[in-house]
Design brief:
Bound molecules: NADP nicotinamide-adenine-dinucleotide phosphate, magnesium ion
Number of strands: 22
Helix content: 25-40%
Oligomer: single chain
Distance between the termini: 76 Å
CATH topology of the largest domain: Aldehyde Dehydrogenase, Chain A, domain 1
Shape: globular
CATH class of the largest domain: Alpha Beta
Number of helices: 15
Strand order of the largest sheet: 14-17-18-13-12-19-20
Largest sheet: 7 strands, mixed
Amino acid sequence: MNQPSTLQHHDLLIDGRRIRPSSGQYGVDLDPADETPIAEVALGNQADVDVAVAAARKAFDGWANMRAADRGRILYKFADLVEQHQEELVALESRDAGKPVGAVRRQDLPAVIDTIRYYAGWADKINGQVVPVRPDALTYTRREPMGVVGIIIPWNFPLMIGMWKIAPALACGCTLVVKPAEITPLSMLRAAELALEAGVPPGVFNIVTGKGSVVGEAIVQHAGIDKVTFTGSPSVGRGIMRGAAGNFKRITLELGGKSANLIFADANIDAAVRAAASGIFFNTGQVCSAGSRILVQREAYDEVVDKLANRAKTIRVGSPAAADTHMGPLVSSRQMKTVLDYVDIGKKEGAKLVTGGERLGSKGYFVSPAVFADVKHEMRVSQEEIFGPVASVIPFEDEQDAIRIANGTAYSLAAGVWSANITRVHHVANALKAGTVWINTYGYTDIRLPWGGSGDSGLGREHGDTAIEDFTEPKSIWLSLR
Ligand code: NAP
Ligand code: MG
């Protein structure tokens, strides 16, 4: 692996400038593949969030009242610059989060660029309505930008999930205080510089790096922030809901999942196994919609377990920088420990570890892809989100049994169903408790389709026109014609 000659040094980005954190302190950002330091990154605090919120407030009127088409044009330029700097962003994202370069190049960056362009197009199409109420009045609605938005981003898709929130918020005319995850801030810091270069005015897009318990908490509590949008764990999500009550912030929460991928015996088993494997092992299983519970009809159970284990064994785990790597390391030593602990828990509960689940090497946070068979629905490995490359394969008898098991967790983000029976797939898709259901495929997302879940999977939906509604407030205007 290439070592950088010097450590990157990153200050906060507030009001269009890099400024030192008021604490004077910096954290060390590691490469998860070899545990070497890549960068020292500012540790912001409450005082820095105050400065960022003040900058965002000051910039709000100008950005919100700019000609909408001009805002759109700036966002198109931003997308063009991200596209021109694609390889630089791929390298940053891959190194910082341990994601294979090939995957970031094929998946993350195209999605980021598509997201910015999609919402650039929305900027001048956020219409109100004329609503006929009575003949002696002109009554109409406007959709006004929500104000200053706090954006808290996880480490699994730092740029992509970040942009799912940033692009629509900017299109609507909101100004932002963004907090990347402490362990993966690099791609977003670079992207924000490109946004400035594209013409996003200073103060519109601010970044305060640092710890969730400090910077995140300060954003959530801040009376000068009108909305918080968050992706991460249910426990932090719960805290955000409580904190938001102070000034009745609007909130959008995209939390975890324990998504079920249902394979009926009449499915194309080879295609189902291929997709089920990437559904759980893609991004080292660190995906909110990972198909971590693979439910298989009894008649096909042994065949699927066999084929899935064989596929898991062929996955090339290795350096994220290598073009032929399928699976990189976990993002942190903490995440690795969580995964290894769950492998132990599964074994103790009586599930059968068919393959994987071991740390690979002694440098970097690599774990081999794991498949548990004979998993019972009540076991912790079937109920709790692991957020790692661990598949739990669970047998079912019939449609009713499959739906009962699939719907039997606190989560409801996504699900998959595999069958050649067209009536069955529709029936099952309707019955599944999930924000997204994939039929005879798994894992696709698109910025045009609503995304999110309920229960422990969160609150509200992202993407599409839902995000436009979410970053605006309706206003009713009544003009007397008498
Ligand atoms: P997390 O703590 O929820 O972190 C997500 C983001 O929230 C990070 O930017 C984090 O900052 C910030 N944060 C942490 N504490 C906060 C607080 N008190 N107030 C406001 N913001 C706060 O998630 P994690 O600990 O990194 O991962 C734990 C689990 O969360 C995973 O195992 C997985 O189950 C789930 N998760 C889900 C998704 C998803 O896509 N739905 C993504 C990531 C994680 P710092 O990281 O800088 O502290
Ligand atoms: Mg990192």
